[in-house]
Specification:
Rossmann fold, single chain, 7-stranded parallel beta sheet
Length: about 700
């Protein structure tokens, strides 16, 4: 078309030179204007080819980056930009682990830098993730200046900080560094420096407002704050308040005291199985109101939710952007999350009962003192009696002459224990623990079938024992725990395990190995000891079950029948139901246990069966998503030393039959009044918050 117009211009121009006229002059001018318009359109088209409007949000990002994003990631970028565009000073991206929160943040920041909407970003994370973030920026947005505020060189840290503050870019640092250097991070040339964005990865690190780390992060000035976490609530709803209080700079959920009285208490009470109909109805309405308040500032998607949804072309309609690419997240394989109810070994049970019968324990239950130390002893007994101190082993009658040396202080060190444990017959070690008896038989079967397995424990000493036994049994294994502090060494071990199928077992501590590692070469995961915190175990599972996993994954959670571990698991269920009700899960999970049951920790129930397993079996029998191969494997598990199996992943598939309703019109009016009062109180307190809000309120 433009060639025709250009030809027309040349022809009419020649005629005009031969025989000038006003009509011909007007035609020439019109043709010239058309050429200019076509030139501008072509230039805009060329520029438009380079950038794409993400989900019609108004944020333009580089097309090459855009087309590599999955649909849910594009929507996450659009959500982050909507917070900025609508003047909301912060928010929380709480997608499940493994859905790509890192790439969503990088794509968002790339668009913001390209549009000159921001100049400086401070990104805070656990130290183990610093290298990973640097690599991801280099991969996805190499044009952004990224510097690191970490390491032993104070001079280098200061230079990197100043470069970002003066020349724009992203500064990566760790929570430990912020704790020691928060004043420096908030100043430039002795003047207060305000970051355009502070982004917190693994943001649940600031779940406790009174912690020094939390206060240090609060003290750094920022216009906007974004929190990334796969676990927005780990223990109670106060943690959710703490995250939003930081993200929204005090302008959303009021004070901690008001939130606890008006929201947390009624929601928690409603989750108890013995709650009255009125309490259940109030809790439901208060929970719905809380979700409506946080919804504009909060985005959370689960793996299951993403996989069930087809590509959302409505949010990014075809034809709106030339060359639009809809990239769907690859389907994840099946995951079966099993609870294996194992027996205490005879020696374990004898010691356990003896400990519970001590006068010290009876006296403890009559006081208000925290029983944490005593509960820790019980947890260790569930795993292996040799986890106790050498002195305790002597008192309990264990053979320790070949087991643990005594230092001058009277206790064996970790290295002493690992050295001396090798002198104990591995058969003896196995016989002393019901879990070990099951675990070793399981690992030998999995090795025979060619699986690579992750084994998580909260205890390095427990990993020492397992490592000793597996080494004696000729297993090729890898290990990471808190003693592996060098990031390069961690990455090397992970890389070797991922590439070499000869490694059949990877031993990891839950606290260290459960964060920031991708171990998709493994198709089996063993949680040797359940955590008090359900999020901790979930993070461990997601090392293997994440994007990139091609094979079906099986999880084994080992829990001893009738012990404190069974009660801990029941406590996890209670916590998870709070999380699901308060962060947008539309289901109303079946109320499995009463709060009273969670208090009965210092009892030992029937050790040859599990009341929890029986209860879950009655609810979820024949619901397992399986195939002949898994059926055969589970049949094998039943030949081992254990009571039975439950399906953890079916835990929340059982809903209550109907929504809780108030009993009468008066009760209904009371509930409506309580909900209105709660919302008005937090709104009033939020409005009174100082615009220059810098410190958390601990009232």
């Amino acid at each position: 078309m433009d060639r025709k117009v250009e030809g027309s211009l040349n022809g009419r121009g020649q005629n005009y030179e031969i025989q000038p006229s006003k009509n011909l002059e007007g035609c020439v001018r019109a043709v010239e204007e058309k050429l200019v318009t076509l030139g501008l359109e072509e230039e805009a088209a060329e520029e438009g080819d380079e950038y794409v409007n993400v989900c019609q949000s108004g944020l333009m990002i580089y097309r090459e980056l855009h087309d590599k994003l999955f649909e849910h990631q594009k929507e996450g970028v659009a959500f982050l930009y909507s917070l900025y565009r609508l003047g909301r000073r912060g928010g929380i991206l709480a997608d499940d682990m493994g859905l790509g929160k890192t790439i969503q943040i990088i794509a968002f920041l790339s668009g913001m830098f390209d549009a000159d909407l921001i100049q400086s970003v401070l990104l805070i994370m656990p130290v183990t993730l610093v290298n990973n973030w640097m690599q991801e920026f280099l991969k996805w947005a190499p044009g952004i200046r990224v510097k690191v505020f970490h390491g032993t060189s104070k001079k280098e840290r200061g230079q990197n900080l100043e470069r970002v503050q003066r020349k724009n870019g992203v500064l990566l640092t760790s929570y430990q560094m912020v704790l020691a250097n928060w004043e420096q991070l908030g100043r430039l040339d002795q003047q207060r420096f305000v970051w355009d964005y502070i982004v917190l990865d693994e943001a649940h690190k600031i779940k406790t407002p009174s912690a020094k780390t939390t206060k240090s992060v609060y003290a750094i000035p920022a216009k906007n704050r974004i929190l990334l976490t796969g676990t927005p609530v780990q223990n109670n709803l106060r943690e959710l308040w703490a995250l939003f209080d930081f993200a929204c700079q005090g302008a959303l959920l009021g004070t901690a005291k008001t939130f606890r009285m008006e929201y947390e208490n009624p929601i928690t009470k409603a989750r108890e199985k013995d709650a009255t109909p009125g309490e259940k109805a109030l809790g439901l309405k208060i929970s719905e109101n809380l979700m409506s308040i946080i919804q504009p500032y909060f985005l959370r998607r689960s793996k299951d939710e993403i996989l069930k949804l087809k590509s959302k072309r409505a949010s990014c309609p075809p034809g709106m952007d030339r060359g639009y690419v809809a990239l769907e997240m690859p389907s994840l394989p099946r995951k079966n999350d099993l609870i294996v109810w194992v027996y205490l070994a005879p020696m374990q049970e004898e010691i356990y009962r003896s400990f519970l019968s001590l006068d010290h324990i009876k006296a403890l239950l009559m006081t208000n003192r925290s029983p944490l130390a005593e509960l820790t002893v019980l947890k260790k007994l569930c795993d292996h009696p040799r986890l106790l101190s050498a002195q305790a082993c002597i008192q309990l009658g264990l053979e320790v002459s070949d087991y643990s040396e005594q230092t001058e202080e009277g206790e064996g060190t970790d290295s002493d224990m690992f050295r001396e444990i090798k002198k104990v017959s591995y058969k003896t070690l196995i016989e002393e623990s019901g879990k070990l008896t099951f675990l070793i038989a399981l690992l030998e079967k999995l090795q025979e079938e060619g699986h690579q397995t992750l084994v998580f424990s909260q205890s390095r000493k427990m990993l020492d024992i397992i490592e000793h036994i597996l080494t004696q049994r000729r297993f090729k294994l890898m290990r990471i725990d808190g003693t592996v502090t060098c990031l390069a060494e961690r990455e090397s071990r992970v890389g070797d395990f991922q590439k070499d199928k000869g490694y059949s077992v990877f031993l990891l501590t839950t606290q260290v190995g459960g964060v920031g590692l991708t171990l998709t070469a493994a198709t089996r995961v063993v949680i040797f000891d359940p955590s008090w915190n359900p999020a901790t175990d979930a993070q461990a599972v997601d090392r293997a079950y994440r994007i990139g996993q091609k094979e079906n994954v099986v999880i084994y959670r080992l829990i001893t029948c009738g012990t404190v571990e069974e009660k801990i698991y029941r406590r996890q269920v209670f916590k998870d139901s709070l999380i699901r009700q308060s962060t947008g899960d539309k289901k109303n999970p079946y109320r499995y246990f009463t709060k009273q049951e969670l208090r009965e920790l210092f009892t030992l129930e029937e050790t040859r069966s599990s009341a929890t397993q029986i209860q879950l079996q009655s609810l979820h029998a024949r619901q397992r998503n399986s195939d002949p191969q898994l059926d055969e494997h589970i049949a094998y598990l039943h030949t081992l030393e254990m009571f039975g199996i439950s399906d953890h992943d079916l835990m929340y598939t059982c809903e209550t039959g109907h929504e809780e309703q108030a009993e009468d019109e008066e009760a209904h009016r009371y509930i409506e009044h309580r909900v209105q009062k709660a919302q008005e109180l937090v709104q009033l307190e939020s409005q009174l918050t100082n615009v220059k809000y810098q410190q958390p309120r601990f009232s």
